[in-house]
TrEMBL record:
It comes from Catellatospora bangladeshensis. Transmembrane segments: none annotated. Residues 1-15 have a biased composition (Low complexity). Residues 1-38 are annotated as: Disordered. This is DUF2249 domain-containing protein. Residues 16-29 have a biased composition (Gly residues). InterPro entries: DUF2249. The lineage of its organism: Bacteria, Bacillati, Actinomycetota, Actinomycetes, Micromonosporales. Residues 46-113 form the DUF2249 domain.
Length: 118
C-alpha cells in the first residue's frame, strides 16, 4: 500500500461503537448511540428483566448473600429498582453501596458492592 493509500485508510473512522474498531460496545448498531450498550464490568451481572416480577427481589437478595467478601454485582432492571434498594438497605443496613451506571429510559443498570463495613 502506498503512502497516500495508507494515509487515506488511517483517516477513515474505524468501525465500532466507540470508533476503536469494533470493540463490541454495541454503539455501531442502528439506533444504539444512546445508553443501551452493555456496561462492561468484571462483576457478575443479574438481568431481572426476564425474571417473573414476584421473584426478582428474592433472586437479587440471594445473589447478594452469595457474594464474596469484597464482591459486587451489576443489576439490570426494566425500571429504577427503588423498592428493592429500600429492601436491601433495610436488610443489610449500609453493607452495600449503590453506583448508578445507566438510568433509563428503558433499562436501568446499577452496581451493588459490599462496603468496607460489611
Amino acid at each position: 500500500m502506498s503512502q497516500p493509500d495508507q494515509a487515506a485508510a488511517a483517516a477513515q473512522p474505524a468501525a465500532g461503537g466507540c470508533g476503536g474498531g469494533g470493540c463490541g460496545c454495541g454503539g455501531d448498531a442502528p439506533g444504539s448511540a444512546d445508553a443501551s450498550a452493555p456496561v462492561l464490568s468484571l462483576d457478575p451481572r443479574i438481568d431481572v428483566r426476564e425474571v417473573p416480577h414476584g421473584q426478582r427481589h428474592a433472586r437479587v437478595l440471594a445473589a447478594l448473600d452469595a457474594l464474596p467478601g469484597a464482591g459486587g454485582l451489576v443489576l439490570v432492571a426494566p425500571h429504577a429498582p427503588l423498592p428493592l434498594l429500600a429492601e436491601i438497605e433495610q436488610r443489610y443496613a449500609g453493607r452495600f453501596a449503590t453506583q448508578w451506571l445507566q438510568e433509563g429510559p428503558d433499562v436501568w443498570q446499577l452496581r451493588l458492592s459490599r462496603t468496607s463495613a460489611a
